[in-house]
Fold this protein.
Amino acid sequence: MGNGKSEIGEAEVGTMELIPGGSVTTPSGFAAGGIHVGVRTDWDKLDVGIVASEAPCVAAATYTQNRVPGASLVVSRQHLSDGKAQAIVANAGCANAATGKQGMDDAIAMAQLTARKLGIDPHDVVVASTGVIGTYLPMDRIGGGIERMTLAADGGLDFAKTIMTTDTVAKHVAVRCGTWSIGGVVKGVGMIHPNMATMLCFITTDAAVAQPFLAAALKRAVDVSFNMIDVDSDTSPDDIALVLANGLAGGAPIHSGHPEAPAFEAALERVCVTLARKMVADAEGATKVIQARVEGAASVEDARKAAREIIRSVGVKTAIYGQDANWGRVLSAIGNSGAAVAEEKVSLFFQTPDGKEICVFRGAPLTYDMAEAKSCLAPAEVHIRVDMGLGDGAATAWGSDLTEEFVRLNSVYTT
């Protein structure tokens, strides 16, 4: 994660194993599937999917901060209020947002149809929708698709594809720690901004986990991952990050004082950060990922504010797209972030493609090789580091550059 101390301690991740091709069905007891029903008639992709556990799960979630939540999100929050769930049903192509009573009825029907298929309580089904706001779900086609859908232990990739909208690649990951594993899938490449962006994230684990600890661990993981990315400063009505823990790996439930608690938190954070970075790398129209590392801030919260402001700044995004080493825009973004800043103590660095750094500002402009600075912006991932010189607070944020293709995609999204 750039220079300075990572948010994930090396001691905590030493036994963590990345599972090639892993997804939400990597942990034991989970099955998934996807099907094409034509939620959007101009699409030919998979657009309805299910993830289900063979055993009831402890559950926790974080949600969009948008004040006009979609119907599916409202229903899911109600179903998750007891900290339990066993299945997820999701669709792409229609957000089921701004759809009034019919939207609520349709979201409830999706849960009921899925529960009937699986033989479980409808209140144990989480419902998620993503796509165009203000259109209704084609429930006749969705109902038939749910009935026909086949779930399998290797169906995680199909499910990952069903939740894609303008995403160009399916985004999934899994890690193993000893006897248990964590798998995850995410969608989202536009309307991406801290406070939960236009994203659906579903995480599964076969670890036994106490619900209060699971909820706290998820919040901390989201704070350093999905709440530290930006594409276009917009958020949507449907965003959710959900984790289901079915406990089939055995053992006593992991809680805050459990010996495996640090490893579980590290693994959950690794899954969330990996998925967040995949989102930014696939951002609408993007050619580059921008990583902003802020160190030496007066507090962690100040570091997060400054890092987020750097990667959300339109001036920074466009400068990096054009490979213009305009460090003044970075400094201005920091000053606009709300974080404590003492200009004379700030140092600003660009990282060269071979991993070295050049300092372009240290309390005042420095003399440096302009061609070398420009070369720092050539790679597909551009690294910026800032030392605020005020304390020990540190944070990392990731964003995308802003291009003509982003404007084109978003000017024709519904037509």
